[in-house]
Description:
The protein is α+β, with helices and mostly antiparallel strands and 467 residues long. Helix content is 18%, strand content 43%.
Amino acid sequence: MSDDRMWREWSQLAKQSVREKYPFHLERFEQEVLIKIQREKRRRRWQVTSWAAGVVVAVTLFFQIAQPFDVSLWGLTGAERGQEVFEWITPDEGFMHALKNGYPILPEVKVEKDGFVYQIRDAMVDHRRITFTLLISGEKMEEIARIPDESKRSDMLYGRLGVDLGELRQIGGASKDFQLIDGVHYLIIKSNYRIDEKKMREIMNQTKPVLPVQIVDMHKNDADEVVAELLLPLPKSVIVSEKVIQPDAEVDGVLETDSLLTSLKVNQIIASPTVMEAELEATLQDGFELYRLENVKLVDGNGKEYPAIDDRINENLERVRGGDASRVQGSDKYTIQFFPSLFYEEVPEKLELRFDEVSANKSISENIMLDRNAKYPQSIPFGKKNKLNIEKVYYDKGKLFIVIPNKRPEEIILRVEGRYYQDFIIAENLETVSLTFEVPKQDTYQLEMSGLEFERFPLKGVIPITK
């Protein structure tokens, strides 16, 4: 598989992911990413040739790990900036609370193979989450550090080696940095993932449980190749245990409103060593799903707060997908996570779920006939609030070009004759984006528009759990 084909296929997957996870409310950040991608893609072979895929990479690095967005991804690497003091990954409040209560940090694991040295440090895991720092050094890393071509060196560092937890991994991400520390070059990968609790339970039920962390080479043609595997021994102190908090039978635990969200209740809260996960059941009108609860937290009778794990930008709820099993009388189930966990404490006599605003969305799609010879610009309504503004449509060199304003260009996803765009071209003045589609030349085309429609409204929510 060629690099171009690999990136095209990966970008399609990335675009799909970004459509599901990110509503593009970070306009200034997106614009910076967009400009940098456009400038770099002509000279960096490893750069993804998709605006949406670039945003996926950037947003993952930006939000998932508690480390600021680093200019080394686009400019100088850490080594070129000079010696740095290395900081290990900072445990979040959930892991830190567990640590204070005697929960273990796993022993360091080190493997040397094919000129690389792989070390896992500061690993913490329960049956729901894992965080660790991976250091890659060795003779091969020093050879990479000496590559004079900055683009090729960046390709080797940021586009090649990655972490794979296999079926254990659910969602999360990893940041990468390249640093010179005490004369040694390190590629530092800081990982933070939510893991499949069922798979983790299977591992912990083994006689001598070990958690496999694979290092993969992402440059291979057909599939990622495992170049090294580190086995993290799991001591008995890593427990697969939890505390289930059920709402009191005598509390009125259902919030009913006359808004788009008609009802919301807490079914249960499961407290594990590093995190609490609440299961919510919600009923919404007109095909909408919950997207966010703003300022959501658990509050006990003394006013102590247990905030949701929240990056303040993306959805903080996850819908439970499981067919009819996830629906009760037309309602949908969601999960939301909080910390620190009540795993180590007594359940408070009084506990409430509170929030002050609701965001919801639903998928919408519309098909229209696109006339290449019509008069442009045109504004095409999409849903109740959105519209697609087309500046120009033309055909050139076997491709159809649709020119749209450079303002959140992926807010409405376009397909022409069933095909996603192959590439984009940003105008020199940055005011428009041209999407290119490989379709035959004809006068009219089937244009499919899809996207999300959002609703946001204040709602002072208080749901008693215990009293």
